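Dear Dr. H.,

I hope your travels went smoothly. While you were away I took the liberty of generating a structure for the chain from your last submission, since the lab meeting agenda had it listed for discussion. I wanted you to have the full record in hand beforehand rather than looking at slides cold. The sequence, exactly as received, is reproduced here:
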Amino acid sequence: MKLSTSYLLSTILLPPSFLHAFLEPEEATVVASKSFVSPVVSFQTGVVNEQVNVDGVNFVVFDQDEQQQLVGDDKIVPFAFAIALTSLESTLGARDTIVDYKSGKIQLLTLSTPLFPGGGFENGLLWNVDSTNSIADVDETESPATISEYTSLAITSIKNWLNDHATTLQIRTSELGSIRTAVHSEGDMIQLSMDRLYNNIPVLGSRIMATIKLGNLVNVGLEGWGDINDLDILPTLSAEDANKILAKEMGLTLVVRGPNKCEPELQILTLDTPSTEFGQGYGYTLVWKICPLFENQDVEVMEGLVDVHTGQVYSFVDKVHYLQAKGGVYPISNDKQYPDGIEQPGWPMPYMYVGNEITSTGGNYYTEGTLTASLNGPYVQTVDNCGSSTLSSSDGFDWGTSSGTDCTTPGFGGNGNTHSARTNFYELNKVIEMARSHLPNNSWLKKSLRVNLNINNSCNAWWLNTVNFYRDGGGCRNTGELAGVIVHEWGHGLDDNDVDGRIASPSGEGIADIYAALRMGDSCIGRGFFYNNAKCTGVREIDYMQGSRKPKTMSNNNCNGAVHCLGGVYSEAVWSLYKRKLQSAPYNYDDNTALEIVTRLTFIAAGNVGTWFSGNAPWGGCGSGSGYREYLAADDDNGNLNDGTPHMQAIFDAFNDQEIACNTPARQDSGCAGTPNTAPDVTVTPGDTVANISWQSVPGATKYQVFRTEGVKQCGQGKVILATTTSLKFTDTGLMNGREYYYIVLPKGPNDSCFGPASSCKTVVPSEIPVPTTPSPTRKPSPPTKSPTAQPTKTCGNGFCQIEESLTSCPVDCADQELVILTNSTKGAPGIMFWVTADSRDIDISAFKFYTHEATSNIVQVYTRSGAYSGFEQVETGWELAFNETVQLMGDGYSFTTLTLANKVNIFAGATRSFFIWIAGNANIKYEAGTSEGDLVGSDSFIKFYTGAGITSKFGGSSSNVYKPRRFSGILRYDIVSSVATAPPTVKPITPKPTLAPSKKPTPFPSTKPTPLPSRNPTKQPSKNPVSKSPSAQQTTTRSLLDSKTTTTTTTTTATAKPSILPTTASPSRNPTKSPITSSPTAKPSLSPSAHPTTFSSAQPTRTCGNGIAKYMNHLLPVLKTVPTLYGRCTMLGIVGIMFNLMALRDTVIESFDVYTDDVRPDVIEVYTRSGGYAGHEVDAAGWEIVFSKTVQQMGRTDLTSLSGLGNGSGVTIRAGTIQSFYIFSANYIMYDVGSVDGAAFGSDASLTIFEGSGIASDKFPGTPVADVVFSPRVFKGKIHYDAVTLATPAPSSTSPTNAPSQKPTTKNPTPAPNSANPTMAPSKEPTTNIPTTSISCTDLTSAEACTANNACFWRPLAGSCRARTNSKTSKRLNLVP
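The corresponding predicted structure, in token form, is as follows:
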């Protein structure tokens, strides 16, 4: 028989990223980030190389003379080895033997060999195995009774077996080292791992493993067990030498006289060799295992392996282990229907006791060490009639999976580790979590629920203060393995413990079915209950369209009092409300929105239902406390049912179909005016056990609800409400890494009953790899840019604390500022220290918000001191107590713990103050590792926040109680109490960094003194500043991190010129300035307009055609730059449309726009244009002309989307001196920035000026004004591609300052200014050059070659057409991106 082969190529497993440990071990620090493993290392236990699967005992002889055996892929096995293996398999009854080609030995044997008495296959042994493995008849009471006795028996038995077969296995049993064991289920399963020693030196990556099940040896394997011969075991280098080598190689600094994290030890390292010969694939070398202490190292145990002879570093890894609890679960049923009827391995065991800790919703826990767990927790206590569940582990808990049903287990975790126990524990905790999010004040949902499993009966389940489930039998499956049945019985408990406090009549079965259906997203209740082929194999189908297609009504139900049948009357109504009524006209809700509406109504309404229906058909819902009435009450938005409710017609229709509605009050949908009709666009990014959810604001939304679910049905099942918030982001914590989670965000209108459409379902998989975060900035940004020429306006109430405002003069804008600093907070300690600096204004610190690891009540203290705390981490001197109260800590789930300071802490402008938050008791503040103590964590225009330290002992202990650097994670709230900084007297403005290269041309904006024409040869450096008799206005720019709005402050010193409406630039532009034709140096361009523009001198113009510049090359003007938020998105805003005006300073053809969109997807974008400004025409289509309408691949927020070919390739012409307005529209949202003054000039070059415009929130041109449709001022963000067609300019204007520079330099004696009240709108006209004429029409030339050959024509590549020149021109673009 030809042998099959399988190969597992050499794999290097990099060290795991940090998850959680009890106070400090978590994500990679500076030291841990240096981790690596050399590619030649094979020491990872369980990783083997080039295995050969020997299928059966027959071999095909390749070359008998050479005594070799061909085993596929040209792998040659020695003939003697093949014969020996054949004999061994025959003797032991082994099959599917795996051979490690590199070691030349057996890698895995699959057996069923009895080692000691047990219930294994053909195990006829009796008790009392002696050292020779002889058998004697003894009393059964002498069998092992303790874990210790089982451990001793297993070790003795496996050693004896290995001695018996050492020759065939090609091992020396003298090399066997320590043996570790794990005994499961009272000896039912025992796992063994045997280390290897060579001359009493441990061999890394080489071991023997074995598994004993019910007394039988079921597998035994050798890993990395090659031959070690003549290895030099006398080290050349000392352990201290190895420490120094390791530090140098890793670029780290050893702590002088610092304690080692482990004792130096000699070890033998298993390596891969390049040999392809059988048995020659492993090599061995002697190394020092060392764990020195480095600077900036915390509790990480960084282990290095250094060759004792050569000094080569083979590995440097963190040896801390991280923890999680998980197990196999049936998602919906055990009916084997893929995927929700198949047991899913590795699902989290939420809210489970692990030692003294409780796991999170993702099964995570923090405590290190060997711990014991069972399938019990604060909310669910499992009592399994098959036995108890228990596991002990120091490396996380995996309860495993198994085949079979009832009392079948994976072979460990105790006899109570059954399918039913795992599935019940998971599903009950999840539905209770879901219910708690809807009914947070229901005390029953916070109590422990007892679950009785595998009761020795069949075909039922029941509730009587406990939930109870039967075994498989009688044509029914094990009811404890059916999630729908589990939730149904739990639903009875909620019905019995709600507001009404009893099971509702005439039947409580219906509401239990509803809870199950909404949680499972399945109308077949308890799918898989019966072993049959019916369409619904559950106990009931509550969707009548899946069965009789007729509703079960009050008059035709034929139930004869049967409670399950009667329950179907109203459960069908609720399911119909969800699946049909709300998803049809006039509502047309999507499935997720409809599901959450009905889920909310049900949890609220059912709590007070006494009798679901009564009286006579067709109005069975008129009684007090009827289901119909309670659903209406839950749906009401204004406390008056008589004027209708938001979804009254849908509720009526659903209940009326079953004859259980009521004809009063009169049915009408009403209320919820202004409720959002746009779904939020949601982004979800993964972190380490977290998901970061963010979304765009939706018009009309007063708040948002964030929902999460998990499992094989994605968003199509019941969800947990994570948050109800006015924010646009949320971080979900405590998740399982590597597991898919699903999220939606629902916008809410003026009342909780008012639902906008849900976002699409978003999927995220949390990852151990940390997600880079950017400190979220202050909630209230700096004031927007104001035009210096604009008249002063009243600013209090505009949402910004202006420079002239303070807490006293404008509390609405200057109170309750928030600096948000949220990180992936995996670390924690009872205390955190940090310092803050008041940047430009006096401030009062008023509150702190943060997460804690635990949800409990504790005394919390806040201390403060002047200056940075350095040197006072363990000394109370100088610290003042600012807060000392008992606080309810909220844990790491849904809410911040908030400390509001009754006596606010004042910080003068420019001063620094430290804070120390301490929890007195067994609880920890969550924070994150920093890079360096004192690093800036986050800032805004008023405050700076710095990296600090974690503290585990208040004002005492040793340096080991101080963990540095640590970053506070949370929110700092403060008030701005001064309008001008009191100390220091002045604050340096923030100026933009200079660009990398000097300017190639003068600025396009007019200066107080005109700039000379550039020459043809540019210099390499920017020109020097001239001496000016009339200094221009100096402007500085600062930015708020939140909205990226720019604040421009103008300081003028006896300037006579009018200030510019455009901000200055504090740096040279990118290209070198061309040499001026005057003898004096070129003045540094000023950005203020000329007070008195000069006329052209009589000097001859320099020839510039062909230099790539449309007379003056377009200045690439950046829009307000954006910064990343915590979730990696830009802070630019967006809506379906953006309108803006362009003014041409010369005849210009707009060729195309490049824009940012909200998402990456194909969608239609339209561009409209009209002559003149758009003001007054935002909603009226009259006068607008469409010049672009195409489906384009939109590139989202990080890459520009090109809209080329406006006007079918002809472009949009704007005559010099005129204004043209544009409207860019897409349902996928066009992104823009917030402006300063509506209609103010925002950017300009020598050809175009762009003005601040408006965002448009409605569909195109609704015709009549609609509330909240036009948002202004808003700034187009992108690029404008255009052709500068002519240099002709209109007559001078007296309405506005100059928007472009003078076109000619001033001589030493400039000509007088023109006699006009104001500067001209455009540069003076320059003499033109004659252009040859031709009798050939340029439009007749169809190729670029023919067109460009005629110097009277030019080729327009975007349009693909030839056009006659009217003057020298070059295609250019106005750049409006950073």
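Two observations you may find useful: The longest strand covers residues 1219-1234. The radius of gyration is 39 Å.

With kind regards,
E. W.
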